[in-house]
Amino acid sequence: MNTLGYGVLGCGAVSRRHMDIIETSPGMRLAAIADRQIEHACEMSSRYQSRPTVYQDYHALLEDPGVDVVVICLPSQFHAEAAIAAAEAEKHIYCEKIMATTVSEAQAMIRAAHAAGVKLMIGHHTRWCAPFAQARRIIESGRIGEIVAIDGAFASQAFLPDTVRPTFWGIKAGARGHGKIMNFGTHYADTAAFLAGEQFARINAFITNRFSSGQAPEDQYVVTAVCQSEAIVTIAQYSQLHSIAERTRGFVVYGTEGTLETYYQPNSVALKVAGDDMYRPIPLEDDLSHIDPWLRLHTQLRQCIEDDTEPLVTGADGMRALQWAVAAYLSAESEQWVDLPLGEQWWDYSGPVLHESLPQAQKW
User: What is the pLDDT of residues 325-345, one digit of tens each?
Assistant: First the structure.
């Protein structure tokens, strides 16, 4: 196995998680880091034994012959520009979610990667959290029959002035400028589609702002999707002012032959099939419980580059999660069902933003 050189764009908290994995994984070498705050990039480079080369302009990093794979951890409004530039430089791409801010941008990223013959993976790692991956195996085994419905419920801290750091670009106008739908809901939608084994056909949504007015466009939502098979998938996220309780982040999957519950706080899977009086806990399989989901994605991307196969989470997967979010915004605004995939008239729509009350995001 040849060792691949990795270049990471951005030096935020998520970037550090990727760098730690790359630095310690066989077949991977942390070759370069780019951040417009050059002193931040230099400090980050000094933490790693590989001493990656530091760049202030990511375009210079893309010219580095020692970089084979680019990991994009920039604010989401820069994902498309960076991914297209990376593809044109013939670098393979790992792009953090959300993939892009519009469907048009996501399509352009997919086209660029295809034209260049490089791999494009989107960082929807939640589907590979051990309890969710185990649940998918149980579903694939047929133990609960055909999927009738999936109910996903997630509690999280409200976006409040004293809980959101001033530098958090995710809810700033001119960046994503979004709340819980884009920041978190896209992960849950991708995981729900993974569990269902099929895509969503129609969306209906209710979106509100209970605690975070002036801080984010929305902090609570309920989104109902109908799949091609007419299975119903509901994803709800609620904001709380207190600490988050256990079993408030996960899915209940209803089948024709049984039901399973799966949570990642705590990591657990429980199954009840026809004839059972109560749920039975299902032990997590070793190959799932002992591997970090972020590491799983990086390892698989490394392997699919070697074998010329498809990534675990493709550009098409990332675009579908984005379309779920955009459709949710459209449904909430119109108070109507929205069909998927979205019509061309909505490909440049990115949802509501708070232009008035939030600071403008800086250009990267």
Answer: 999 999 999 999 999 999 999
**Cβ contact 277:84 at 8 Å:** no
Closest C-alpha to 288, from 306, 262, 255: 262
HSE of 338, CA atoms in CB hemisphere, 13 A: 25
Q: DSSP for 331-364?
A: HHHHTS-EESSPPGGGTT------TTTSPPPPP-
Which residues lie below 8 Å from residue 162, measured CB to CB, with a gap of 6+? none
Q: What angle do CA 362, 123, 331 make, to 5 degrees?
A: 75
**pLDDT tens-digit series, residues 155-192:** 887 766 666 655 555 555 444 556 788 888 999 999 99
DSSP letter for 283, please.
P
Indicate left, alpha or beta for 308 from its phi (over 0: left) and psi (-120 to 50: alpha).
left
Domain-by-domain residue ranges, the chain? Answer: 4-125+293-312, 126-283+320-346
Per-residue confidence band for 76, with pLDDT thresholds at 50, 70 and 90? confident
Rounded Cα gap, residues 156 and 161, in angstroms: 15
Superfamily, domain 4-125+293-312: NAD(P)-binding Rossmann-like Domain (3.40.50.720)
The first and second tokens of residue 135, run together, are 């649940």
Answer yes or no: are the C-beta atoms of 283 and 290 closer than 8 Å.
no
List Cβ neighbours of 104 (8 Å cut-off, separation of 6 or more).
347, 348
Q: Where are the beta strands (DSSP E) in the chain?
A: 4-9, 28-34, 53-55, 69-72, 92-95, 120-122, 147-157, 200-208, 220-227, 232-240, 249-255, 258-264, 267-273, 280-281, 338-339
CB 138 within 8 A of CB 252: no
Same fold? 4-125+293-312, 126-283+320-346: no
Domain spanning 126-283+320-346, CATH class: alpha beta
**Residue for token digits 């012959």?**
65
> What are the respective helix, strand and coil percentages of the chain, to the nearest 5?
35, 25, 40
Closest CA to 150 of 65, 232, 226, 91: 232
